[in-house]
Amino acid sequence: MRERGRAWVYTLLLMPLLFIGGFVVSEAYAVLTYSSPSLLRDSLRDLTRRETLEPTDAFRSALAEVEAHYYGKPPAIDKLTYTSIDGMLGALEDPYTRFMDPDAFRRMQEDTTGSFTGIGALLEDAPGGARIVRPLPNSPAQKAGLQPGDIIVAVDGKSLERVALDEAVRLIRGPRFTEVKLTIRRGENEPFTVTLKRDLVESPTVDVYLEDDENKIYRIWLQNFSEKAPTLLDRALRQIKQEGGRAIILDLRANPGGLLDSSIEVASRFIPGDKVVVSVVGRQGLLDQKSTLRGRYANLDVPIVVLINGGSASASEIVAGALRDHKVAPLIGEDSFGKGLVQTVIPIPPNTAVAITTAKYLTPNGTDLNAKVVDGKRVGGLKPDIEVKNPEDWRMTEEDKARDKQLQKALEVLRDKLHATKEGNGILRAQGEAEVNR
User: Fold this and answer.
1) What is the domain extent for residue 129?
2) Is 372 part of the annotated catalytic residue set?
3) What is the pLDDT of residues 268-278, one digit of tens each?
């Protein structure tokens, strides 16, 4: 009986040692397996040297140890490295400073150029998958009969139940003319599968709508600030001029932003003269001021309003803030997203990149665009001059336009302005082709 009690004492004493020693067991085990005192001394000397390694050397050393000693097959070296970089950038606690692996970097380049290879549908997050906001005209999605509100629940058999929207997009996109199999949930019906052939898709950038035929009020829905945005905006303005437009709604809702240069180009169409569009402030203070570009003004002589909501971010906020500060247009809708930060994209050969926050934007009047979290709530962004909220389940589609309270308020404001001024002939002034059709 005594012997058994002693055995239990030994066990209890050893267990804490095992747990405490667990952090060094790999080194201890390596040392204990050496067969000679000299090898043991060398190992201990090496261990001491490791304690003084620079962080970058420590990373390389850890990577080498994983490759050499991990009991299973370790992930590919690039995956280990990319994950390590993600961890490093995560320490900054800045969601916009991020590493882009080859796939993410390629998607970013496609998004900024305005074209990509995929199925041609605008997507948003939805429970259990990705919801189709609308198929693009003449796209594989439209030709396959996909509809607004359809939810993609699987791609090539892979469930999207717990998959981020970015990852869902990555799975859907692929080389041109290759096939992708989508599982679709439509309403309460049983899910069905459809196979689409990927093709080159032009990213939607500018759509024009005649919202009030009697008063000739047009809405320009600017959906992003890609390289093509200024040219497509010029085309829209020409169309409105030719059709006798008397008022314009610039719709920046659900516009996540894009290129700074494109935002300056767009603002230059609406703001006359040499005016500041945005100030760029870095660690050392004011870095730069971006002003309207000479020869880009569209000679507008019509009332304008701007629509914004929580999806209006970055370049959208720059343009909206500049138009309000220069008294070109009031803002209608909801608080904007609140992202006025400058990300500098630095390519890392051969095919990755890192986006680093290097500065922040201020509107011409000095308004800081960035939202802050106060008591757990996101506060900031641009405040509209006229606040109007749409129903939570409202979708930015033609089918849901009747419930678009923000659009209705914009039309009301412009009708009042037109009736007050009685400038029935106040359409877009004549303008040289060189100013609009660059």
Assistant:
1) 115-202
2) no
3) 999 998 999 99
